[in-house]
Amino acid sequence: MPTAIIIEDNPDALQLLKRDIETHHPEIEVINTAQSVVEAAKILRKSQPDILFLDIMLGDGTGFDILEIFPDLTSKIIFVTASDEFAIRAFKFAAIDYVLKPYSEEDLDNAIKRAKSQLHPDKERFDILKKTLASPEAKPDKISLHTLDKIIIVSLEDIIRCEADSNNTIFYLKDNQKVFVTKTLKYFADMLDHHNFLRVHQSHLVNMQSISAFIKTDGGYLLLKNKETVPVSVRKKSEVVEILDRMHRS
Question: How far is C-alpha 229 from the chain's CA centre?
């Protein structure tokens, strides 16, 4: 029987989550709860659960403090956080599971299913999450990508372009590596908006730093610095030309 510990500083939220787990996921045994970093540390020294529900903001610190106290923690972690666009972005960049408060029964169910099937996030992914949450106005410089069998960390500057493949996305990197990710291009286009990536076509997302020129012939296409070409859709053409002109002037 999988075990769980809940760390949440709001007593009402803690009891609600505990009750929801016990009601909708009777296969999981909630063996303990804590409302602070100090209390959580005492509990985790005695026993580590299969799943740790971890609030980010605690009265005497943060959930990251707990992870630093227990660097070898083997529990699957589900962060529980208030609804915040910056927090959502941070979790997506780090590819770490989270549940947004207030959550639905379906949200909780999906997070638990994902947690059961995933490996414990490594330190680098936690660092991405921590850094992005600490500086919401700053642009993340790395992203975690879920492939079919692992999660890899990629620098945004090393991404040349992304291409849709049905409901999946292929990342083309500077070292000629291709990374197949089981999420849609729209998911990444939304995430990388305002991060120097430009959706130039229904099937193509391009790192603007990789663009060499816009070629007006043959319907219009981009010539990249690595000599690859990427089509530009008719409805995106004027936007692409305007952005490239602005980049050239600056």
Answer: 29
CATH (one of 3.10.50.40, 3.40.50.2300, 2.130.10.10, 3.40.50.300) for 3-134:
3.40.50.2300
**Architecture of 146-249 per CATH?**
Beta Barrel (2.40)
Sign for the CA dihedral angle at 122, 124, 125, 127 comes to: positive
> Using an 8 Å Cβ cutoff, are 156 and 140 in contact?
yes
Of residues 194 and 32, the one with the higher pLDDT is 32
Task: Report the helix count and the strand count for the chain, using DSSP H and E.
Answer: 8, 17
Rounded CA gap, 7 and 64, in Å?
12
Maximum pairwise Cα distance, the chain? 69
Q: What is the pTM of this model?
A: 0.64
- The three state secondary structure string of 4-72 is EEEECCCHHHHHHHHHHHHHHCCCCEEEEEECCHHHHHHHHHHCCCCEEEEECEECCEEHHHHHHHCCC
Residue 105 reports pLDDT greater than 60:
yes
DSSP state of 134: H
For residue 122, the tally of other CB atoms under 10 A from its CB is 11
